[in-house]
Amino acid sequence: MTDSNFFAAHEDTLKGALDAIGSRGFWSAYPEVPSGRVYGETARADGQAAWKARLGKPFELDQGYAIGTVSDESSPWGIETGIEYPRCDLNQVLGASRCAMDAWKRASVEDRAGVCLEILHRLNKRSFEMAFAVMHTTGQGFMMAFQAGGPHAQDRGLEAVAHAYAAMKACPQSATWSKRVSKTETVTLDKTWRIVPRGIAVTIGCSTFPTWNSYPGIFASLMTGNSVVVKPHPGATLPLALTVEIARDVLAEAGFDRDVVTLVCDSHDAPVAQDLVVHDDVAIVDYTGGNAFGDWVEANATQARVYSEKAGINSVVLDGCDDVRAVTGNLAFSLCLYSGQMCTTPQNIFIPEDGIDTPDGRMSFDDACAAIVKAVDWFLSDPARANEVLGAVQSPATLERQASARTAGGTVLRDGAPVAHEHFPDARLASPLIVQVEEADAALHEQECFGPVVYIVRTASSARSIELAADGAKRKGGLTAALWTRDDALIDTAIDAFTHAGVALSVNLTGQIWVNQSAAFSDYHVSGANPAGNATLCDAAFVADRFRLVATRIPVPAPVEEAAC
Amino acid sequence: MTDSNFFAAHEDTLKGALDAIGSRGFWSAYPEVPSGRVYGETARADGQAAWKARLGKPFELDQGYAIGTVSDESSPWGIETGIEYPRCDLNQVLGASRCAMDAWKRASVEDRAGVCLEILHRLNKRSFEMAFAVMHTTGQGFMMAFQAGGPHAQDRGLEAVAHAYAAMKACPQSATWSKRVSKTETVTLDKTWRIVPRGIAVTIGCSTFPTWNSYPGIFASLMTGNSVVVKPHPGATLPLALTVEIARDVLAEAGFDRDVVTLVCDSHDAPVAQDLVVHDDVAIVDYTGGNAFGDWVEANATQARVYSEKAGINSVVLDGCDDVRAVTGNLAFSLCLYSGQMCTTPQNIFIPEDGIDTPDGRMSFDDACAAIVKAVDWFLSDPARANEVLGAVQSPATLERQASARTAGGTVLRDGAPVAHEHFPDARLASPLIVQVEEADAALHEQECFGPVVYIVRTASSARSIELAADGAKRKGGLTAALWTRDDALIDTAIDAFTHAGVALSVNLTGQIWVNQSAAFSDYHVSGANPAGNATLCDAAFVADRFRLVATRIPVPAPVEEAAC
To answer: Which of A60, A417, B156, B248 has the lowest tally of Cβ within 10 angstroms?
Structure first.
């Protein structure tokens, strides 16, 4: 193994991450600003050129077992990408993965950490190339594609490395066990423990955050000695193909078999995820995606340990605020960001029928609704800002869902009008549709409607708003909730209700911080405590069950007494 | 809550346990010697009297929801016990359990730890009463019933308390998150995290080690805020009924609802475990027992997180030794202890056809077999020792299994003759049946034959012995392996093979230490890395997924600049 330099090179980064997961203050290893001063003056141009050079060609991955090609990506920005990926024989890939694991699982924790940290380091250097890959598969605006697809995803990967490192180091490699068994006899055993991985880990990527949501599982499994099969979404393959390419290079340089990390691609017409996750050889599944298939994976992949990050219905409880413009402005950004395609985007805004509490007295329900619509309209009135923040819509199905919501019921307060883009005339763009409904319209607001669809729900009171939002999350799943209020008692009520519904609550946000944001090393993403997912990114539970410790016990002979002579 | 004194009273015990799970040297909180000097001169008599006072009567548990009684226990020692337990309405118990959890989950980690530590402390004081309860349900001899049913089980419970405490303390309760978001602006958030339990936890007890195997799950779930429903084996109810009684008293004294811990009893004819583990309200299942039902639980209780401790086929690889008598003596004790009813008891002894390596040269295969038989015979030649060590056979089915094995194939080297007992004439007693088979007789030695049945398997070589034993464990499950050899290279081969089969290996044991022993705070019991179970007692994976952390984020206003005047 030649990778010990990798560990030494990145040990400080690991130490920083270990401190951060303990203190949970702000920390980041990888700069989020896409600046030439940080990444090099030519980094953006180089990254764009590297990305462009991939277009319209087969993706050359140094991996065998191909039995054809697939090519299902199309940029939501309306340009041709046309990259062909290998379609591989599942059994061959799994066989190779198993063989590759043999040396990987025997490596030291430090050797594996060195490889993982070096992969993350190289991913970071390639953040601009990754940004274009993410942008033109997910539809994210460039800034988000850079940050969420690059440094923030790398931070999430590093966070998993740190948790796995800590979990494995919690047990010593050896110990001397000495027990007095009688007045004259002591038994002493040398005990050693070795780490045994669970087996082949499969990561099922999603179409909207292919790297951010996949890196925790990939790195948690790698760190703990498992080999990893990466199965990207057919519509967002390039970001994970790039990741696999980099990982394989680092593995080879460190003297390991490249097949410790493999890529399995499929198409919308001939998906392989179902066969893959229930395969006898698969011991771990990390799934991010919709609830329907996620629920199926949880119920059927019983031979594996499944970690799921699905979707939920996120809520806003608007009870009152000191500054209506500041609050609706903050909320408008949350609603517009990536056209509502974040799993943390609010869907339902609960407002009491008697309006909201402000320093100027009660603002009526209708005026409160109008203020939200106005804030969204104002935010989107600057085309450049609108384009950058909204991004494009990843899947045509999302636009169809928005179209259905327009006529499904309730009162349309703001139509989800298409937005023109100056650089990408064929981009799939939309803005938030805002529909007002009643409490009783549960068929509307209790269904997840992924994408740019917002329901304002008129309720009897803010207490009722909290009840509806928390209860809905408990039954249907939920990731985030936001509360704006001037009433401290209501904050306490909300904290209690949302905590026990497993929903992270943000209170009275204004300015440069939004409910959709989830920061590595501090915020747990998805609680695992409601139907939105069974795992969180990232805690001890996310890593500790990916490996086992197995012991050997050998007696230490009792010391020979010196003969008295 | 009045339980803060409980935490203060036992904080040193917790600290000792936390140190022990980190260093994994020998440590114990509860003395294993059933001595009057430790437990009080009248402790044995008092415990026996307390146990006797329960016989032939309803078990008075201060718990409602009863819809009848069950009484399926009978002492394997042949005496009448005749205790009646309440049969309860499942839905009522689960409803009460859910209500009781509400205050329990909101308590501090210290308050919950205080209650758990006090329960263990009181269990320890009642160790003699528990010993008789365990002896006359499981059939264990008195010494084992005292140690394994009392202090060793308490240590296993404390170990789980320590792991859960450490896992919950790994995340701070609050943090200040401060991020520079522009040249002039910093966002600061106060973050708080609360612990949310997974939900109602069900513990399914087994008939042979009702306390030792159940305490880890019970205490891990309690510590992390879950309520616990205890479902004992119908044939070994008293030890867990006693435990529940003590737990409920401590809960009430601490101001909690007694129904945080409830007892659900059933009978062989009308079992409720199946309904219970797949109930929608059940979020955690800790299962100890046979593989058939365990596999069913794992496949069907998909609404819950299942931790299973099933059975496996344990192996001995006998390649050679320095002192044949010392080794066969050590092995004979392991084979006789509790008539082979420990899940750690060896079943298969693999010996190469060309015999074993000794300082006096090669001992033939037949002579090696004869030495083992002789050691068992010698060990059992002292009736008092035989009675105490063999104990009684818990279930008549185990005797039937032994009877079938006698004629199923192979050559009987030693018959599993019944043993007489001077004090208990009606006891269900047996001694090990030893059958010689060939490698090819996989239908015999690759089936778990729980109880006093031992196969000696003739193999082509010791390398082949290791291969057969490790491969069998990987496919069918295995908890322990023992190797005796004079060849260091073979030790390395065995460590590698058994480690990757998830089997704890003991090498060259002689004297007062046996392969069946598993010490709390040091030995992981069941690896979770083969079909003998999916969990280990006890590690971070065993506790970390029983709770979640849910956050609230509230901005901290920027400091107001002093006006320059």
So the answer is: A60
Whether the predicted pLDDT of A289 surpasses 80: yes
pLDDT band at A560 (very low <50, low <70, confident <90, very high): low
Q: Which fold has domain B315-507?
A: Aldehyde Dehydrogenase; Chain A, domain 2 (3.40.309)
Distance CA A291, CA A311 (A): 6
Whether A544 has its CB under 8 Å from any CB of chain B: the answer is yes
Which residue in B360, B290, B296 sits closest to B325, CA to CA?
B360
SS3 of chain B: helix, strand, coil, percent, to 5: 45, 20, 40
pLDDT digits (tens, 9 = 90+) for B294-326: 999 999 999 999 999 999 999 999 999 999 999
- The C-alpha of A546 sits at a distance from chain B's nearest C-alpha, in angstroms, of 9
Give the pLDDT confidence score for residue B560 in this predicted structure. Answer: 61
Helix, coil or strand: residue B139: coil
Q: Please judge whether A171 and B502 are an interchain contact, meaning their C-beta atoms are less than 8 angstroms apart.
A: no
Domain ranges of chain B: 26-310, 315-507
Q: Give the global pTM.
A: 0.97
pLDDT at B564: 47
Q: Which residues of A touch B528 (CB under 8 A)?
A: 548
Torsions phi, psi for A505 (to 5 deg): -110, 135
> Using CB atoms and an 8 Å cut-off, which of residues 462-501 of chain B contact chain A?
491, 495, 498-500
Nearest to A499 among B176, B196, B503 (CB): B196
Quote the percentage of chain B above a pLDDT of 90.
96
B412: DSSP letter: E
Return the amino acid letter for A276. L
A184 touches chain B (CB under 8 A): no
At A386-415, the pLDDT tens digits run: 999 999 999 999 999 999 999 999 999 999
Q: Which two tokens stand for residue A474?
A: 């408990």
CB contact under 8 A, B524 and A554: no
Amino acid at B43: A
Query: Yes or no: is domain B26-310 CATH 3.40.50.300?
Result: no
Pick A4-170+194-311's CATH classification: 3.40.605.10, 3.40.718.10, 3.40.50.300, 3.40.50.1220.
3.40.605.10
Shortest distance, CA A237 to any CA of chain B (angstroms)? 31
